[in-house]
């Protein structure tokens, strides 16, 4: 009965990151009455503080630039890289992603989202069949002032408040040690100053993406409720017909005539789940609201779960404030190695962050150590140390010594073992071939390298004192396990049947990318695509038993 409901909409969407906003924009475009609810007091989710890239094979920007790609090549690449990980990455879901990705790019462009191609960024396995360079896209710097007071509620302001773009980063990491890095840094400064001079508040990366999407959501006049978590899904005769939303001290029953879409992130900050599924407490860069609530609600409704033991792994160094700082180019640049607690290398330091994270976890005994020499410290940007090194020294988190033996003693590693590891690595740096782990072999490895270092831009000998070491822990950009969904983003039961009226996208779901990370933006790209597909399916009224108006 109508009197049982506090509010009635066509589509109720939980979350405010890329998946949720993509769904909201699509549903509103189809003339549906949409309500978007966010559990925290800030909107944007992990998207807003991310790199902001979307891995979108065969996208219109590639075609415009004359960069050849095809669905067939991208599918061959995904099949080869991802392999068989079960229904989360079924062939149907891969095809749904690949067929829809170009369409979503065009669709959001029609709504005012201004894309740019990250033309230099390789797939993470560019040497595998179908691998390419330049499949990622991002949003051009966005003026947050266009959002008015809503800008102040954006999680994007928690990130880097400058208009940096993806293809800036690889050169900015060596901004004061190479001519092209200096030029790229100068361009960023001019871009930032140009925004200030014209009265704009330009944001880049994930902030630009989140703000661009929210700008469309606000223009569509879709209500957005902050501090309003979903606490319960309402089911009638096996169908999700709405949800309970906690708002301003009240529990509101919201009916969703066409469906409920869950795009509320993963469980990166749920310590019990992290320990249960990952065996580590988790050192995550995701926002604090990433508690797994939407996954739990879906499971209570009968949903199957998959890939709960995995995450968008990488590595992190823990700062004096206790917060993790994601490590990317720092471990890839020359004049550095990463060693275990025995002082031995254990993987390719320049590998994709998820592979590096998996290898780090496999060590068992943590932490590992990022060991560098004076040239690495002098030439390359360390994101974690931008605020100054002294606090890190004082907290014992950054070690410095005049010799490798002294550094090993501070690390509590056998000096002879560390010296032997460095001596062997230095030999590889001389020949340009890492005979142990193949570091610097692929275009992705070399993307975060220094082309001035010969013969291999990722291999530089550790010879110049002082030497440094930082503890490295398994970090992540969010979790990648969750509700199992099909090619329409419908949430599935254990028997493979969809739960009518329930959809999910983004990190609330088990990833179509399986246990790997095919290319830059492999988190956000599928989030946007499957959020779009969820809204299209809900709008079409194709779920069994859709409630009439």
UniProtKB/TrEMBL annotation:
Organism for this UniProt entry: Nonomuraea terrae
Boundaries of every FAD-dependent oxidoreductase 2 FAD-binding domain copy: 10-524
Protein name (record): 3-oxosteroid 1-dehydrogenase
InterPro entries to which the protein is assigned, alphabetical: FAD-dep_OxRdtase_2_FAD-bd, FAD-oxidoreductase_2, FAD/NAD-bd_sf, Succ_DH/fumarate_Rdtase_cat_sf
UniProt cofactor(s): FAD
SUPFAM superfamilies in the record: FAD/NAD(P)-binding domain, Succinate dehydrogenase/fumarate reductase flavoprotein, catalytic domain
Record EC number: 1.3.99.4
Gene3D superfamilies xrefs: FAD/NAD(P)-binding domain
Reactions the enzyme catalyzes: a 3-oxosteroid + A = a 3-oxo-Delta(1)-steroid + AH2
Enzyme class: oxidoreductase
Taxonomic path: Bacteria, Bacillati, Actinomycetota, Actinomycetes, Streptosporangiales
UniProt keyword annotations, A-Z: FAD, Flavoprotein, Lipid metabolism, Oxidoreductase, Steroid metabolism
GO BP, one annotated term: steroid metabolic process
Family the UniProt entry places it in: Belongs to the FAD-dependent oxidoreductase 2 family. 3-oxosteroid dehydrogenase subfamily.
Record-level Gene Ontology MF annotations: 3-oxosteroid 1-dehydrogenase activity
